[in-house]
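Notes taken during the Thursday session

The instructor put the following on the board and asked us to keep it in front of us for the whole hour. The protein is Four and a half LIM domains protein 3-like. We were told not to look anything up and to reason only from what is written here. First, the residues (278 in total):
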Amino acid sequence: MSEPFDCDSCKESLYGRKYIQVDDVPHCVPCYDRLYANTCQECKELIEHNTRELYYEDRHYHELCFRCSHCNRPLADQPFTCQEDALVCNDCYCNEFSSKCAACGKTVMPGSKQLEYGGCAWHEECFVCCGCEQPIGAQSFIPDKGEYFCVPCYKGRFAPHCAHCKEILVQGGVTFRDEPWHKECFLCTGCKVQLAGQPFTTQGEDPYCVKCFSNLYAQKCSACDKPITGFGEGKYVSFEERQWHQPCFKCSECSVSLVGAGFFPDGTKILCKSCNTK
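Then, after some discussion, the predicted structure tokens were revealed:
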């Protein structure tokens, strides 16, 4: 008699039946599936021995259950990712999580050429000048009220021109007599020092730094002979054809301040009431 050839688990005879050995121990197919088959993460059914099985991050799937959770596309041969334990195909992931082109509204796919500015993204071919409608690419551009211009278009349409050199004023600059100037063009008429950021005054149509204006045009104090410029100790007292800085307007004899007080002229002198009566 031949020796019995039975399933190690259910002990039923395996003669004439399909079986599977595990470590040289035979099992009938139902017992093998019950003992060793993995459970599908998606449908929770056993993945039987004759079914193609897919494995991802310690999880097992039937091939037909391995699908995008958004569009139900099979993912067996497709790029995908996992979001909060859900499988997501590359297209759905990009549509949900990737930037949208500010011009055409379509997804800017990861790895594609794109431009980013001010928190927005564009396909490279969609980022065009609002003037000539040519792609800006890696060229310099200038934003203006939500629109973007290549430098030549912006210069031709919008940029102010410096009142001195007539060249384009792209950014910065100063305004003098309602006209724009480059900072490097706005100079003292006398010494040619830049006036941007420092006090200045004018004589006629021309701007001057304080020093040049003082030397050329300012009245001199009758007491200290220094210019009365209107800057710093700018308040002054005027009498007939003479001017004094307020701190210099003192009695010529006792040096008491005469600002707001009566005084008496005596030739080149000015006297307080007390000194005048001596």
